Amino acid sequence: MVTSGEHVTVAVAGPLRRTFVYRQPASIERLEAGQRVLVPFGAARKIGYYLGGGVPGKGVRVKEIVKVIDDATLFSPELFKLCLWMADYYFANPADCLAAALPPILKTKRKPTFRWGDAPLELDKLPSWVAPLIKEGHKIPTTVLQRIKGEGRGLFDRMRKSGLIAAVWAGTGAGPKGAPIGFRAVSSDAWKIPAWRKGVSLQPFDGVKTRTQLKAVGWSEYRIGKAVKSGLLEPVYSEGLSEVMEFVRPREHVAGLQLNGEQRSALDKLSEFLDKGFSTTLLHGITGSGKTLVYCHLCREVLGRGKTVLALTPEIALAGTTLAYFRAFFGDQVTVLHSAMTERERLQSWYGIRQGKYRIVIGPRSAVFAPQPDLGLIIVDEEHDGSYKQDDPAPRFHGRDCAIMRARINGVPALLGSASPSVETYHHVRSEKYHLATLATRPTGARLPIVHLVDMRSERVRGDLPFMSYTLKKEVQGRLTRGEQVILYLNRRGHSPMLKCAGCGFLSRCPQCQVNLTYHKTGPKLSCHYCGHTEPSYSACPSCGGSEFLYLGSGTQKVEEAIPCLFEGATPVRFDSDAVTGRAKAYRILTDFSSRKYNLLLGTQMVTKGLDLPGVTLVGVLAADMSLDLPDFRSSEKTFAQLLQVAGRSGRAETPGEVFIQTYYADNDVINDAAAQHYETFFEREIESRRRFRYPPFVRLINCLLSGSDEKRLESATLSFRNQLADLVRRHRLKADLLGPAPCPLYFLRGQYRRHLLVKTGQIVKFTTMLSEWEHEQSRFGIPSAIKIVIDVDPDDMM
Ligand code: ADP
Ligand code: ZN
Question: Which ligand is nearest to the CA of 527?
Fold first, then answer.
C-alpha cells in the first residue's frame, strides 16, 4: 500500500522493456498491484499498470497519473506475480505480460458506462436533486453523470465507492442488456422512405441478422443506429454464453464409463498430490489410453474440495474435443477462454470465471491467465505440443512452463499429460523433479496399431502421383471397400508448393520473402506460407506468356483432387487451416466424419492431435521426412511426436489399426522408434545427443533475432551487438556460448533481412538480468532504430 503523493512505478506497453515513474496525485488514495491507470506518455495518454513504489531518475521531470481506471485491481496477487515473473524470464515488457492476462476489450477500452447500483448512500448525504433520478439497474444518462461530477466534493467518487454508481464495461452483460447480438426487421411503411437511406436501398429481412451480416448487404453503423432509433430494426439480446457452447455438445456417455485398473491406480496416485501444495506430475499414457477420463475423475475430486481447475489444450480445435468430454461430466460449470471467441464472449467468460460461476476453464496457452479464484489444479494436456509457445508477438512465453510456474505460485499441483512427452519433461521425470503416472494400455481393449514403413526409394509410383505408393494405395482401397475409415496425413497445405512455367521456367516468388509461392486451387491464388501475402494466380506466364505450367510438389489440395481417380467409393473431406475457417467448422467436420458422412479424412498436422475417431482403422503418412529436414535441434523430437500421435489415431476401437508411413529415410532411427512406438528408446538416444551437443534440457537457449531492410546496416548492427554481448559475458564471468551471428534459415521475411545470434547458457536468470541492466543503461542495446531486435527465450521456432 502506498500513501498519496509518492512516486510510483508504472508499466506502459511499448517496444522498450522499461517501466516509468509517475507521481501519484493526492486525490488518489491507494493503488493495488496491477491496477490500471491513465498516464501522460509523450504527447498522448496511455493505459499503464501500477507495479509498486518508485524512485525517479535524477533530473527527470516526473509527470502525474491522470486517473485510476479500475475501482480495484483486475489481478489476484498470484496472477500479478506470474505476469511479472514472465516479464523477467521471457525478457518482456511487464505491461505486455499484464495485458496478455486480460480480455482484449480491457486492453484498449478505458471508459466504462455507468448504471445505478443497488447500494444507496444514505440519501440525506446526497444533493436533493439526485434521489428522484435513481432508477436501479438503469444506465445513468451522460447529462446526469456530468451534473454529479460538476457537483464536486468527491460526490461522484463517493457514490461509486458506495456502489450506488456501478461501472459496466462494454459487453459484460452486467448492465440491463449488454450489446445486442443482432437485429430483427420490424415491418413498417417507413422502410420505403427512410431519410437516412441516401441512395441505397435497404430491405427488410427475415429472422435475425448480426451487424456483420447487415454490413455485408450495405448497412453501415450509422444506418443501423438510425434504423434502430426509428423503430425499423429491433436489437436482439442473448443470455450468457450459449453461442460459445452451442457448437460443442457434451459427449454424454463418457461420464458413465468405469475406470479400468490402470486408470484407477493413476487416479489414486494423482489424487494423493491434491492436498500437498505444489508438485508436477507427468501422466505418460499411450495414445488412446484414456487420459481425458482420468483428468475428469481427478477434476471431480478437486471440485469436491471446493476448488477450481484450469486445463490447457494445444489448440482451439482440440479444446473442442476436450470440452465435449468435460461438459459431459461437469455441464455448465465448464467454460472456455480462447481467441476465436468474440470480444464480448471472452469478456463474459472472463467475468464468470472471476465470479466463480465456472469451476473449470479449458483453453489454449492464453488461458493460463484465467482469473480463477480457489485454484486447485492445473492440467496441461499434450504438454509436448509446440503451439504452447508463443512466438509472436511478445510476450514470447511458453504456456506449459507458465502453467507450472502458476501452479508453483498458487501452491497447487500441475499435471502434464502426453503420449510423447517433451524431452525436457521426461528428463525431469528421470531426475525425479517430476512425478510419473503411467497408462500403458488402451481401455477399450484395442491394441496399439501395427506400423509399417514404406520405403519410397523403391516404392514410389512414377508419373503424376508421386505422393502415393502402391502399398498405401492398395491398403487404403481395402479399408474403404470394407466400410472402414481412413486418415491421410500430409503436412503441407495448398495444391502445389511451386508453380513453374513449362516454357521458360518462371517461378513465382513472394516479393516480401523471396520464397516460392504456393499454388492454391481455391481462387485460384498464389500464397506465401510465411507472411500471408497472396496474389491471384495467372493463366498466362507473366514472363513469357506461355500457358503450360508444372505443378511441382504436393499439398493437401492436390491429394484431394487425386482421390477420385485413386480410390473407388471414397468420400473425402479436407481438414487443414484453409478448409477450417471459424471455430465451429472444425468441430462440424469432425462430427460429420464421426457419423460416417465421410470415409477419408485428409489433413495437415491438425489431424495428428488428440482426435478420437473410433471408425478409423488406417492412417497413411504421406511424407514423414518433411520435418526431419528442418534445421532445428528439435526436429527429431517433433518428428517422433507427430508420427506417434498420428499413428495413435488408428485402431481406437475393436478393429485393430494399421499405419503406413511413407519415407525416404527408412533406416532413420527416429522414424523407426516412432514406428515401433517406443518412447523410451527414442528418449535415451535423443537425451544423449542433447547432452553431447549441449542443447536443452542441459542448457537454455536464447535466440536474439535482428532484422532490417538494409542488409549492410543489419550486418554491422548484429556484429556490434554480438561483440558487446561477448564482452559483457566475459566481464560478468558467465558461462554462455554465443553462436553466430548467422543469417536465419529464412534469411529474408516480410521485406526484412534477418540475422540471429543463439545463446546457450546454464545461467539463464543471470544472463537475462545482465541483458536487462544493459538495456537499462543503453536503450535497445544501442541498436539503430531502423533495426528491430527480438529476444526469444526458450525459442521453439528458430526459422
Ligand atoms: P488419450 O487422450 O489418452 O489418447 P482418450 O482420452 O481420447 O485417450 O480415450 C480414448 C478412448 O477410450 C475414448 O473413446 C474414451 O472414451 C475411451 N475410454 C477411456 N477410458 C475408458 C474406460 N475406462 N472404459 C471404456 N472406454 C474408455
Ligand atoms: Zn512472404
Answer: 2
